[in-house]
Design a protein that fits this description.
InterPro entries: Casein_kin_II_reg-sub_N, Casein_kinase_II_beta-like, Casein_kinase_II_reg-sub
Bound molecules: zinc ion
Mean pLDDT: 85
GO molecular function: kinase activity; protein kinase regulator activity
Strand order of the largest sheet: 1-2-3
Structural class: mainly alpha
Protein name: Casein kinase II subunit beta
Family: Belongs to the casein kinase 2 subunit beta family.
Number of strands: 5
CATH class of the largest domain: Mainly Alpha
CATH architecture of the largest domain: Orthogonal Bundle
GO biological process, one term: regulation of transcription by RNA polymerase III
Length: 262
């Protein structure tokens, strides 16, 4: 790692990037193409955001060959990481960048959704801000449409701006087939088998609204976007009816404290 900067041999044109990409904790990053990095247009505005911008750029593109002391080298190294991250946010919304990130997404490099009902849905990295040093990277689940903190502390410290607020949404617009079907399944709070009254009432109200929305969409001949249209609904209902009927005895025991939902 110490001698990469002095090595300007053309055989090692992506030496710094190779090292960066393969470093532990940098798994979320893809390799930015040489021609993208060397096109000044793509770097517009970054010279004011990154200290030692020119040195950092030289380092990233493997043309840095100045003798500097350790302290200076460390500062340039930090700037190079910052520069790479900010260019990365721009690169991953290009056709080439999207394709590279899509491959990583398919392989599950960014991890899986911790929500049980999402059934190990693969996640995508994202930022809550596009401005550097505002917040750390989060992971987006397209199934539950929620965001999570990365599990590992070495990913938790990555700047969210290195991925940006739009990339994960653009990816699904460009590759719509990767978008998981919406599911109607969700966790129902129960106490000894009985649905907790307040949440059950809220769920029923939400389900009614959803059914109304689906009816409106069907009238317009539009896809509702939910998986297992309606079939799932009936199954769930009949299952619950049977269950409730079979527990009348317990029902009496808890009378006044809990209201099982019919
Ligand atoms: Zn999820």
């Amino acid at each position: 790692m110490d001698d990469y900067a002095s090595d300007t041999d053309s055989d090692y044109t992506s030496y710094w990037r190779d090292w960066f990409i393969s470093s532990r904790g940098n798994e979320y990053f893809c390799e930015i193409d040489e021609d993208y990095l060397t096109d000044r247009f793509n770097l517009t505005g970054l010279n004011t955001e990154v200290h030692y911008y020119q040195y950092a750029l030289d380092l990233v593109t493997d043309v840095f060959d100045m003798e500097v002391d350790d302290n200076m080298r460390e500062q340039i190294e930090n700037s190079a990481r910052q520069l790479y991250g900010l260019v990365h946010a721009r690169y991953i919304v290009t056709t080439r960048g999207l394709a590279k990130m899509m491959e990583k997404y398919k392989q599950g490099v960014f991890g899986k959704c911790p929500r049980v009902i999402c059934e190990s849905q693969h996640l995508l990295p994202m930022g809550q801000h596009d401005i550097a040093k505002s917040s750390n990277v989060k992971l987006y689940c397209a199934r539950c449409e929620d965001i999570y903190n990365p599990k590992s502390s070495r990913h938790n410290t990555i700047d969210g701006a290195f991925f940006g607020t739009s990339f994960h949404n653009i990816l699904f617009q460009v590759y719509p087939t990767l978008l998981p079907k919406k599911t109607q399944r969700r966790y129902e709070p129960r106490i000894y088998g009985f649905r907790v009254h307040a949440s059950a009432a809220l769920m029923r109200w939400q389900e009614e609204r959803r059914e109304e929305m689906k009816d409106r969409l069907r009238i317009q001949n539009m896809e509702t976007g939910f998986e297992d249209e309606d079939e799932g609904d009936d199954d769930i209902e009949s299952e619950e009816d049977e269950e409730d009927e079979g527990r009348d005895g317990i029902d009496d025991m808890f009378e006044g404290r809990m209201q099982p939902v019919q």
